[in-house]
Amino acid sequence: MKLLSLFRISAVMLIVFVSASLLIDRWVSSSTSDRIFTDASLIPERSVGLVLGTSKYIAKNLNPYYDYRMSAALSLYQLDKVNILLLSGDNAHRSYNEPWTMKRDLLKAGIPEQDIVLDYAGFRTLDSVVRAKNVFEANHFVIITQKFHCERALFIAKNNDIDAICLAVPEPGGLAGLKIRVREVLARVKAVIDIYLLDIQPKFPGPKEPINTQAVEIEGPVKPEQ
Fold first, then answer.
1. What is the pLDDT of residues 50-103, one digit of tens each?
2. What is the DSSP letter of 224?
3. 122-143: per-residue pLDDT in tens?
4. Beta bridge partners of 142
5. Is the Cβ–Cβ distance between 194 and 200 less than 8 Å?
6. What b-and-e string marks burial along 28-51, b requiring 16 or more CB atoms within 10 Å of the CB?
7. Is the dihedral of CA 84, 85, 89, 91 positive or negative?
8. CA distance linking residue 28 with residue 217, whole number of Å
9. What is the C-alpha to C-alpha distance for residues 84 and 73, in angstroms, rounded to an integer?
10. Going by DSSP bridges, is the β-strand pair 140-146/48-52 parallel, antiparallel, or unpaired?
11. Is 221 helix (H, G, I), strand (E, B) or coil?
């Protein structure tokens, strides 16, 4: 009987956890949908484009998540939607440096070095988004990443009084995409806990390195027609 009771309690707790996770997932999506764009030509102009880092290669193959983000960053710059690209990612060790890898590829694509800023302390999404405001003093910027990631990044931005919008770039489908999506649900649960319960802050909060921008920044997003 004790074993049966334990099983029932475990099953109920699992159901509650899954239900709560799915509710949080929907909450994050619905609260950020009006700030996400899919067409670079229709996105409002902002001085800074924040590119969220990821590895360039997966098992020696080009990571499509990385490729899509780089292509979108280049498009935004060429369309004069942003003047500065802030490349934020992990710099775990000497042989793994997301910001520098992104910079190298964007330089090859023709973006001037003076229009690229690196954030080596973007260890996770919260760090990248909050540091963009607190360290680089950018409070009106475009985030560049996949849609599911846009939603979590914008949720974090909203809860830190940051006026951000996001360009959602394509993402792979299939089994790989499904695995990423499942992980994203758990990442959103953690984001809510970090914000509302633990008040987690970036691992490295400073010093300040203000970005010098020239462009006029537009207040608030203008949602494109569907």
1. 999 999 998 889 999 999 999 999 999 999 999 999 999 998 777 789 999 999
2. P
3. 999 999 999 999 999 999 999 9
4. 49, 165
5. yes
6. bbeebeebbbeebeebbbbbbbbb
7. negative
8. 26
9. 10
10. parallel
11. coil
Q: In Å, how far are 165, 179, 202 from 45, measured between CA atoms?
A: 10, 34, 27
From CA 193, how far away is CA 48, in angstroms rounded? 28
Contact call for residues 67 and 160 (beta carbons, < 8 A): no
Q: The whole model's pTM is what?
A: 0.88
Radius of gyration of the chain (CA): 19
Type of residue at 168: A
- 């920044």: which residue's tokens? 217
- The answer to whether 103 and 65 are in contact (CB under 8 A) is no
Question: DSSP 3-state assignment of 26?
Answer: helix
Order across the sheet with 116-119: list the strands. Answer: 36-37, 163-169, 140-146, 48-52, 84-88, 116-119
How far apart (Å, rounded) are the C-alpha atoms in residues 134 and 151?
A: 21
Expressed in angstroms, the distance from the first to the final Cα of the chain is 57
CA distances from 197 to 149, 189, 194 (A): 21, 11, 6
Structure tokens at 49: 């484009």
